Amino acid sequence: MTNVVSPGHRAQTAAGDRVREDFPILGRSFDGNPLVYLDNAATTQKPRAVLDALVTFYETANSNVGRGYHRLAFEATDAYEESRAVVQRAINAEHTDEVVFTSGTTAAVNMLADTLGRAVLAEGDQLVVTGMEHNSNLLPWRRLCEATGAELVVVDAEQGGGVDPARFAEGLGPRVRLAALTHVSNVLGTVNPVRELVAAAHRRDVPVVVDGAQAVPHRKVDVRDLDADFYCFSGHKVYGPMYTGVLYGKRERLAGLPPWQVGGGTVKDVTFEDPVRYVGVPARLEAGTPNIAGAVGLAAAFDYLDAIGWSEIRRHDELLVRTAVEAFSAVPGVRVVGDPAADPSGIVSLVVDGIHPYDVGDHLNRHGVAMRAGVHCANTFVDTLDPVGTVRLSFGVYNTVEEVEFVSRALRTVKAGVWTTEHPTERFL
User: Fold this and answer.
1) Which is nearest to 348 in space by CA: 372, 379, 377?
2) What InterPro entries does this protein's entry cite (predicted)?
3) What is the mean pLDDT of residues 160-170?
């Protein structure tokens, strides 16, 4: 196949080529095909620096935090709080105590729904979401509305992606008490104008929760610049360990939240009769034993990305996404959904005319390509795009132009299979 990128473009692939050896799993192969890992929107692979940080913690400092009065406990507590400070700097939070460690975006949003949401919403109130939300930033709010008698208001995305600030502002009626929106679509990679959307909500004194799960791995997020009241993301999508995540909240917003869970580490004093006196945030929102090693690993992941350089990461994303759009669009029958090259965020979704996305996914899997086929836990959004689902290819710092070209060649040989012939409209993922 003729190259789809110029030599000048190829020269810009240093990020992918330079870092691949840092990721041990990329040495795997399947049926003679090297692993082409393009499912980074689901989870990223972990560099040796993160793996080493986990092992070092467990080998040298494993202990609980904030409770024990011995050296290991002091070291573990210091490592945990130093990791919090790394995250604070990474997202430019004003204060360290504005960073709450969670198990991921889903846990952070559920925490806010059960604390902030129940405090501000009552029967007859409204809560605004966008039409492009992942289920993790939709279902907790739906359940909250069902429990409180509030109304869920959906502001639809424009054709093929993003939310228009003017339309969003129109949805912020006098009964709206809270808004939740995604920064980057996990389906199309579309980037929402978060700063403008937040400003529109704040003009109505409406607090905003932002799902940043797909943004943080691809761009330098500045929560103060966005002015988000709350910003949630998952550590495992940003090259950190599984079951790690962050809830950022403005200090004054977090201070008003009651504990989501109660238990060890959340109280100043307890009796059987007197009112419980809770500690301040973030400890009040981190009941029990936290994922200490996970926090240490997440900090190592941010240090790793800083060493690559965020400008290089952005250039790499732009190269891969724009190369993919050009290459895939040149394949007969393949259609790229949306406009991922407008502001690349590492995601390209496509459909193949007349072929079920699961058949396309199975074909790519047989070539060693790891990707996602289906509705991506965002079926309400995919419903507006018409297809049964899409094939989502999502890039990380270790992916290369050569891998994009390999997928492009593989797409030229895809054929209809059992899903197309026997289950043409069925979907479950």
Assistant:
1) 372
2) Aminotrans_V_dom, Cys_dSase_SufS, PyrdxlP-dep_Trfase, PyrdxlP-dep_Trfase_major, PyrdxlP-dep_Trfase_small
3) 92
SS3 427: coil
* 211-229 average pLDDT score: 98
Contacts of 195 (CB under 8 A, 6+ apart): 225, 226, 227
Q: Is the pLDDT at 318 greater than 60, yes or no?
A: yes
Element (H, E) at 78: helix 71-91
Whether the upstream peptide bond of residue 282 has omega within 30° of 0, thus cis, is: yes
* Lookup result for tokens 């959904």: 337
Query: Over the stretch 400-423, which tens digit does the pLDDT of each residue have?
Result: 999 999 999 999 999 999 999 999
> Residue 383, CB half-sphere, CA atoms under 13 Å: how many?
8
b/e per residue 275-303 (b: at least 16 CB within 10 A)? eeebeebbbbbbbeebbbbbbbbbbbbbe
Bridge partners, residue 372, by sequence: 392
- Which tokens is 158 given? 């424009």
Q: E strands within 13-106?
A: 29-30, 33-34, 36-37, 99-102
Quick one: which H or E segment has residue 18? helix 14-19
Q: How are beta strands 99-102 and 245-249 bridged, if at all?
A: antiparallel
Walk me through the domains of the chain, giving residue ranges and CATH numbers: 7-46+309-422 (3.90.1150.10), 50-306 (3.40.640.10)
Q: Is the pLDDT at 5 greater than 50, yes or no?
A: no
What residue type is assigned to position 134 of the chain? H
| 184 close to 345: Cβ distance less than 8 angstroms | yes
Q: Partners of 158 in the beta sheet?
A: 161
- CB neighbours of 206 closer than 8 A, spacing ≥ 6? 128, 172, 176, 177, 178, 179
Catalytic site positions: 377
Determine the pLDDT at residue 1. 28
